[in-house]
Design a protein that fits this description.
The chain is α+β, with helices and mostly antiparallel strands. It contains 4 helices and 7 strands.
């Protein structure tokens, strides 16, 4: 699959798996996210295994499955998937506000006014992981 098609799947999918490394084990965690202009943004608590792993090792992998359908009678599956390799950084405080807004626009577009109040009240209590996409691989069986 060409990179632009893979990035379209990344942009339209609803959840992915962020894979990080803590020095002992790989760790994959399902997350909601938003993709914009070569970056993936993931809402997070300021502390925890995911954040500590990104601080330890900034290289990450992010995977999404855009669609899938088991073809029982064909012993196969139709699917489209994307794997991203990149470097992560942790945004905090005022840096998180634009990313949180983009997450709201993606997941709750009819509640932007309510979300704006929540973002203003709680943005200092959350972090955002920002991943710069360095390499993308897409694969499909349609």
């Amino acid at each position: 699959m060409k990179d632009d098609e893979a990035l379209e799947i990344l942009a339209k999918s609803n959840y992915g798996v962020l894979c990080v490394y803590d020095g002992k084990y790989p760790y994959g965690v399902p997350v909601n996210y938003v993709y914009e202009d070569g970056f993936i943004y993931i809402h997070s608590a300021k502390e925890g295994h995911k954040i500590e792993s990104v601080k330890f090792f900034d290289r990450v992998c992010f995977t999404v499955v855009g669609s899938s359908q088991v073809m029982e009678n064909e012993f196969s599956t139709k699917y489209e998937s994307v794997i991203i390799f990149g470097r992560a950084e942790i945004l905090q405080d005022e840096q998180v506000i634009p990313a949180l807004r983009n997450l709201v626009y993606k997941y709750s577009p009819h509640y932007t006014d309510e979300a704006e109040r929540i973002i203003q009240d709680f943005s200092k209590d959350v972090a955002v992981i920002k991943i710069e996409v360095e390499h993308v691989q897409g694969k499909a069986n349609r």
